[in-house]
Write a structure and sequence with these properties.
The chain is α/β, with parallel strands linked by helices. The protein contains 12 helices and 12 strands. Strand 1, helix 1 and strand 2 form a beta-alpha-beta unit. The structure holds nicotinamide-adenine-dinucleotide (NAD) and thymidine-5'-diphospho-beta-D-xylose.
């Protein structure tokens, strides 16, 4: 069995590569990644010498490179994690999001059609459903909730989802889609809420909370997401969408306070800054379908996962310090100075 994992040098993709190599010692795992600002080869150093692993630097929009790789590897399964993934960057510069997230998906699926891939899996997001109001805790996203996007990022992911379903209907490509809630865990890029707050706390820097900090996200430990995708690509029904989430809703401000407490830093570091444009209020996934059909349930409770995650950032300072000392500094200044 050969699996191509795109975006495997990023946060969730790398965790998925580790999961697959250890769970299926007889599988070949090929990572295709452009190594954008969000991709890190150092993340994959522990598997580079594994004979079942191959890394290829390429853009999923580069037809020639993608078709060449499919010709060489004849993959059985393709799992597409490759994407521009940060909402704030999509607000500043939507173009690259449309290119990678939509046209890149098309290129991969064209190659899947040509080479008879038996499963194309699209890693999507709960953000395609838009947001829920804070005063309706009884409401959750199901797979039939209408698509209703807020940011260029979520619009690009929703467009890709529609294209994936169209390739299934029109060309008979055996596809599946998963829509997951917010992930956290090792190798999460420091531009995102949890790692940003951990890194800033450790450097005694202000903790920039958007708006009033009352927005709610539904957090899932990254390994649980990887296990869910593993189940879907092996046992999930073709042509179906599966929501993934662990009923773990938290307000942003409560996460930031928890991180301060865990690192023994004063809450006076918290700084309220201008809100994100179009900021979604609440995400909440109903994971009944994947539970009933595939028996998936999250295994890591947030109280344990966040302790493990904070410890990981303490133990891997060199990984994130290298990132935040490079080009990332310009990004941080642009996004946060005088905000
Ligand atoms: P990430 O930004 O950490 O990693 C993205 C990876 O894709 C990087 O390695 C990058 O180099 C690569 N990449 C970007 N453009 C590429 C291109 N044109 N060609 C090849 N590689 C390219 O992202 P992540 O947080 O790991 O998210 C992975 C996927 O999961 C995305 O599709 C995202 O939409 C989805 N998702 C993320 C979350 C979350 O909480 N992080 C939740 C639900 C869904
Ligand atoms: O500095 C910050 N301050 C702040 O208050 C940052 C970076 C974020 N926030 C808020 C915005 C959100 O309400 O924290 C919340 C989480 O923000 P992000 O980490 O940027 O994640 P989010 O916008 O929820 O999107 C994430 O989950 C869905 C991923 O980045 C997406 O790729 C995924 O699809």
């Amino acid at each position: 069995m050969t699996i191509i994992v795109t975006g495997g040098a990023g946060f969730i993709g790398s965790n998925f590569v580790f999961h697959m190599l250890s769970r299926y010692p007889d599988y070949r795992v090929v990572c295709l990644d452009k190594l954008t600002y969000a991709g890190n080869l150092s993340t994959l150093k522990g598997v580079m010498d594994n004979p079942n692993f191959r890394f290829v630097k390429a853009d999923i929009c580069d037809r020639e490179a993608v078709f060449q790789l499919f010709e060489e590897e004849k993959p059985d399964i393709v799992v597409n994690f490759a994407a521009e993934s940060h909402v704030d960057r999509s607000i500043e510069d939507p173009g690259i999001f449309l290119r990678t997230n939509i046209l890149g998906t098309q290129t991969l699926m064209d190659a899947c059609c040509r080479y008879g891939v038996t499963r194309y899996h699209q890693v999507s997001t709960d953000e395609v459903y838009g947001d829920l109001p804070l005063d309706r805790p009884d409401l959750f996203f199901t797979e039939t909730t209408p698509i209703h996007t807020s940011s260029p990022y979520s619009a690009s992911k929703a467009s890709a989802d529609l294209l994936v379903l169209a390739y299934h209907r029109t060309y008979g490509l055996p596809v599946s889609i998963s829509r997951c809630s917010n992930n956290y865990g090792p190798y999460h890029f420091p531009e995102k809420l949890i790692p940003l707050m951990i890194a800033n706390c450790l450097n005694d820097k202000p903790l920039p909370v958007y708006g009033d900090g009352l927005n709610v996200r539904d957090w899932l430990y990254v390994e649980d997401h990887c296990k869910a995708i593993d189940l879907i690509i092996h046992k999930g029904r073709v042509g179906e969408v599966y929501n993934i989430g662990g009923h773990n809703e938290m307000r942003n401000i409560d996460i930031v306070r928890l991180i301060c407490k865990a690192l023994n830093k004063p809450e006076s570091l918290i700084t309220y800054v201008a809100d994100r444009k179009g900021h979604d209020m609440r995400y909440a996934i109903d994971p009944t379908k994947i539970h009933n059909e595939l028996g998936w349930l999250p295994e890591t409770m947030f109280k344990d996962g966040i302790v493990k995650t904070i410890q990981w950032y303490l133990d891997h300072r060199e990984w994130w310090e290298e990132i935040i000392s490079g080009e990332y500094r310009n990004y941080y200044e642009k996004m946060y100075t005088n905000r």
